[in-house]
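pls ignore typos typing on phone
pyridoxal-5'-phosphate + seq
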Amino acid sequence: MRRPAILGGVPSFPDGLPFARPATPSLQRFAARLAPSWDRGILTNGPLVRQLEKEAADRLGVPHVLAVASCTSGLLLTLRALGIEGRVVLPSFTFSASAHAIAWNGLRPVFAECDPASFQLDPADLGRRLAGCGAVLATHVFGAPCDIEEIAGMAAQVGVPVVYDAAHAFGATRRGVPVGRFGDAEVFSMSPTKPIVAGEGGLVATCRDDVAEAVRIGRDYGNPGNYDTRFVGLNARLSEMHAALALESMAMLDETLDRRRELDHLYRERLVDVPGVATQRVAEGDESACKDFTVAVDPEVFGLDRDLLAAALLLEGIDTRRYFDPPVHRQRSYRSLEPSVLPVTDDIARRVLSLPLSGVLEPAAVDGVVDVIEALHAHAGEVAHAAAG
Ligand SMILES: *Cc1c(COP(=O)(O)O)cnc(C)c1O
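k done
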């Protein structure tokens, strides 16, 4: 077995293994895709954006997809479109933008627990916190669908809408049905680490005509077409340049999803044999978009805690992320709220580590990462001693 770099061994990735890399078309393909709009002087919200919306709607099987400047602005506009008031329940174990969309609407986030095995919003805890709230905003964490039926059931009991932060999940399916069809709306991201990339951008998918109409107007300042703004909107339009890249990315999606799933499978197959490294539980029959491959480290069993593992991996040239640590309720921007008591989320956030994965990573790299993790486990006592000394 190889000697870890943290103990003086040769780094396994001397040139560095980046955490993620977008799958992008050649510059020529991008230019060719953009050319028809470019040549007509159409730079934003034009035919390429319309084509992207149509292709996404066809793929997801939803009546409406609205392209927006980012997932964050899409969430913001969706909550505005639904006319939500008061408090909105969301998991704390998510990206900050979920909560920001609530706060920017003048609404108050109410943070709920995650499940320790799936990392998804815990429906039972949601039920305990839902009384008096105006909506649920649930995230499909790391590209795997959350507990959609349970969440929908809870929300239906109190008669409030459900919006999904589907930033990670374009291409995921829940019991065979594409993510994008659920709740009152689902919002995808097309920023560079997500399964579809536009550079920056988002997609709002909804089966509701009224929500689609309000988001369409809302992304254009609230202007219904006669400059007599109907409500306080945003400029959240997508440019033709971003749409051109997104269309190329969508054309590559099946290929990159296959690669992501292959790598996910390989990580799981090999990590089963590593004590103290738990992989995200995905419900039987669901397909994750595999945006991230995230493990939870049990320091007692693995022999090293998450931070020491991340430091040791970095010395091997392996870049990782602590998604989502700190969880949103612990972030400075939300400290003025009543403190949330979320022991499961706090524990998971301290123990998670996302490992390199993308639609362009080679399987050999995953083998290399797991070889290092195995070696670190085998040398855990020595590594912990060296780090302490
Ligand atoms: C990336 C991300 C967002 C924000 O997406 P943008 O397109 O960058 O605005 C929102 N929610 C989650 C869970 C994300 O990971």
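Residues 70-72, 94-95, 97-98, 139, 165, 167-168, 189, 191, 202 surround pyridoxal-5'-phosphate (CB under 6 Å). The first strand starts at residue 64 and ends at 68. more later
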